[in-house]
């Protein structure tokens, strides 16, 4: 690049595969990549003249063959056509100049490299904000953000729409929604019989417990499996040179195998292609973690999901992504874990062969499966987020980053019990986070932002600890479960900002080991404002004479139970 080099690889005799971050005569920063040292592809920022003696955060990203971006203080300029797809050369790097002697006249405080990892817009914003705070720069989040990610229609979807039969009934076939493909239990049995000794597989069942109102295929983890033939017709993954597979699942048990296991033989299988020397799959190991695996012959890569056990009985969205010759990704509930193909070993198209569901050809997984999508493309992080969020909303799964999503207005978390431990802080969504019916928030930690206790939702205390909430809003029918010890021990909720009460009923449920306690003590306090729209208090679990006292002067709400002997004189 004919500009002052900030940092880059520009060795003139190295041939192709070079890159550079540079500054031109107009004070604009540009990002470049080349197929040869004579032909550069570059994108230049047109928003900021950085020659102003002020600190700036500059972020360069290159997605092989797809996108080249320069980010100046949060303003992104993108190039999405004609981007080279070559590998970078193993050659020297220069800082402060290019090899033509065009030097950078400025200061550099910090440089970070992320090899084989392209930071998403959100990740760039998080890092940019951190560096701007450190060095006194100004960084604007969301600047130059891409349009909402476009998620293509999947040619192969399995959903609850094609699950028929009563709960507990055997599921002999599960066709795709377009009727082109189907998994069958009979084929799994046939495949099992090819092994010596024979491996017996049975049909899964229609799950007895719905997933957020939707049917599931329930695999018992012992003998249940289904399969799809690749003998006469292609499968949805036949010939794929890039691959994305999405599964919505739930489990209350762990799988088998460890982190270094070969997926075909060493772990429990959720879905994948096992047969032949060219294979892929989503694994479930003995630690309750999901893994994305790609392999050929005896060579394989495993990318195991973030440290989150999936055997918790809750819905989870798993997104498997294989980018040819680059990496394999396991996205669990929005958190991506990546394993890089540094040897450039996994480039072959996936062959036309059979696929398994609920098992490898040897080991079953105990899972409920609600939905499956196949794509012969490698989803970008933004596409993963878009589809993952849509499925999480549909099936009630918790998703990393959901509370920061622009569409997250007073969202609810999926877990029935949300415990925030001492020292931990939950950041509520911009519009507040709602406690849903049948859900309970508890612990000794902190909620930043607004927490809304919806109808039949509970915020609970223990006898020695309670949550601290920045702003607490009770909606009509909201419940405060107040723990009261045998000796009168209790801990009040602490509201550091505004406490809002509805024009309706608020319930105080006394949780005590003692029968019919004469409860007395502070239920909650507030530090700033009380917005009381005429709340009507209902006390459960105490004596008939137990009353709620709203003391605006002391900024507290407490319970009092008159005791003593009533003497009537006539």
Q: Within the CATH hierarchy, at the fold level, what is the topology of the largest domain? A: Jelly Rolls
Number of discrete helical segments: 4
Distance between the termini: 105 Å
Largest sheet: 10 strands, mixed
Given as residue ranges, the uncertain stretches (5+ residues, pLDDT < 50) are: 403-409
What's the shape? flat
Strand content: 35-45%
Count of distinct structural domains: 3
Structural class assignment: mainly beta
CATH arch. level architecture of the largest domain? Sandwich
Radius of gyration: 29 Å
Beta-strand segment tally: 40
- Quote the average pLDDT: 87
Share of residues in helices:
under 10%
CATH class of the largest domain: Mainly Beta
In short:
The chain has 570 residues and is mainly beta. It folds into three domains: 4-135, Sandwich (Jelly Rolls); 156-395, Jelly Rolls, CATH 2.60.120; 402-560, no CATH class.
Features:
mainly beta, Jelly Rolls, ten-stranded mixed sheet, eight-stranded antiparallel sheet, 40 strands, 36% strand
Summarize the structure in words.
The chain has 570 residues and is mainly beta. The protein folds into 3 domains: 4-135, Jelly Rolls, CATH 2.60.120; 156-395, Jelly Rolls (Sandwich); 402-560, no CATH class. Helix content is 7%, strand content 36%. The chain is built from 4 helices and 40 strands. The strands form 7 sheets. Strands 26, 27, 29, 31, 33, 34, 36, 37, 39 and 40 form a 10-stranded mixed sheet that branches. Strands 9, 12, 13, 15, 20, 21, 22 and 24 form an 8-stranded antiparallel sheet that branches. Strand 20 (316-323) and strand 21 form a beta hairpin. The N and C termini lie far apart (105 Å). 41% of the residues are buried. Mean pLDDT is 87; it is low at 403-409.
